[in-house]
């Protein structure tokens, strides 16, 4: 079985977000980058499937050379090889079109990714890739088991879960608790250095979405503290000042 | 300009967020065509006219009751062609967003989700979207003729702008391959206010000490007509179901009022709540980071403050 896992290279969840160049570029000064948390779940499930039933796991990232440490980390976690599409991931459509172009050649049985990236928050790459490849797509998937050629899935819906079945091949956007995040061990880190990482040039794609400018939210006003013995005062403020009751 | 709005179904009724999508499309100044799939309450569909729809299409076949992503995408795409609509507006959700993706790919449309404001059309078509999980915004222009817009919850104000209208039956053609994913069953909390759609959320963290104390959170929520939420460790430990977990890796909420009790305010939790209009924090540690993100705070013991707060709110109602 061949599994493709799509990973984004995103600021650590604790990062402060800043922009430069007149609010047109992300300011990466002092920012730690990680594998997208949802993508990390997808990768962990792929590695589990590999361990339990045998599979080859390829990771793909659309990014410039600075994403390679993140890709090596995925190899250390247990992926066998990697593809980097050498381009700046400007939006979900662009990324999806690049992934679809690579996946067309690959003959993958399963394409796993995160339900959404935590930088762009599109939540759509899985659907676009699925449509472009003519495969079903399911997201957000919180459970994925394979029985022969059929996958049994649980999908999170508002206030509950939905159980589904679908035959391979298909695309899934993953989230917890599909698997436990895996931390690379020493052996993994050593072997990752020599695993194949192929760099390919991007396909020409018009995503139809163009960034104009970034913005930060206005600074938050100071909190109003209310003494613990004056709960009534809080209720008054919520009613009359904030007007939310 | 014809704008198709996809109306999501919630147990046979119209989802509240779909009204926001209708209101948004109406405010854009277009001719709003609403499309509903599956068996739905006729009166609610007619009432879409009140919120700005000038036509309501209904594909009432019960085989569309369950939200199959591919089948919905196929039907919406053919409705857009039939109605000569260049723009699709829907509400971002566990169903709406994946459907939007596939429709955009079928139509080769400009796709944008997480949208929080009306488009600026002075030069081009520019929308503002939330990025970095609510920590920032991006203004993007959509350059293709066809456009698919996913609206973030609570981003548009629902207003009465018209009157009820007749519902037009819509017959959708789908192929077997559109049902390649088979929904075998579902579990859904019923009767409760759903967290992603709630106007008020009462959330508890590890400071609540254990699931046996959740009655305090639930009774307050009940009085307020609120949904209940929790922090990640609380759902990880199984004190509360997974779908209640709020934050970076959980549900992102945008209510009028978010009340956080015994939650420290880790940045990953804040990522899920920073679109709330008003945040109240109750924490016994006056230095808890959550206070910095709050509008109102009480430094006190939850087990002392919650019952008093509940009494004061009951008195108000
Ligand atoms: C990649 C990643 C993603 C994550 N995603 C999420 C996410 O989506 N959502 C999320 O919530 N977390 C997330 N986390 C975890 C997050 O970092 C915090 O660990 C978590 O939010 C802490 O939960 P808590 O506030 O309930 O617990 P704690 O940090 O233990 O805080 C408990 C609080 O309760 C207070 N308290 C104790 N007793 C009382 C009392 N009697 N009365 C009042 N207050 C009391 C304490 O002062 C303390 O502030 C994520 C972490 C990582 C690394
Ligand atoms: N630059 C990228 N390279 C590879 N995969 C990506 C990239 N960006 C996003 N993805 C994958 O697509 C998923 C959904 O992204 P999005 O639709 O942008 O929220 C992410 O969780 C990743 O698994």
Textual characterization of the structure:
The complex is a heterodimer of chains A (245) and B (317). With 245 residues, chain A is an alpha/beta fold. Chain A contains 6 helices and 15 strands. Chain A has helices spanning 37-53, 68-77, 92-106, 125-133, 186-192, 231-241, and strands spanning 2-6, 9-11, 19-20, 25-26, 33-35, 56-62, 81-85, 110-114, 137-147, 150-157, 160-167, 170-174, 197-200, 209-215, 224-225. In chain A, strands 11-10-9-12-8-1-6-7-13 form a 9-stranded mixed β-sheet, with helices on both faces. A two-stranded antiparallel sheet of chain A has the order 2-5. Chain A starts with a strand and ends with a helix. By secondary structure, chain B is an alpha/beta fold. Chain B folds into 2 domains: 2-179, Rossmann fold; 195-316, Rossmann fold. Helix content of chain B is 25%, strand content 27%. In chain B, strands 7-10-6-1-4-5-11 form a 7-stranded parallel β-sheet, sandwiched between helices. In chain B, strand 13, helix 5 and strand 14 (227-230) form a beta-alpha-beta unit. The longest helix of chain B is centred in the C-terminal third of the chain and has 15 residues, at 302-316. Chain B starts with a strand and ends with a helix. The chains are: A alpha/beta (245), B alpha/beta (317). The interface between A and B is large, with 79 and 93 residues. Bound molecules: flavin-adenine dinucleotide (FAD) and adenosine monophosphate.
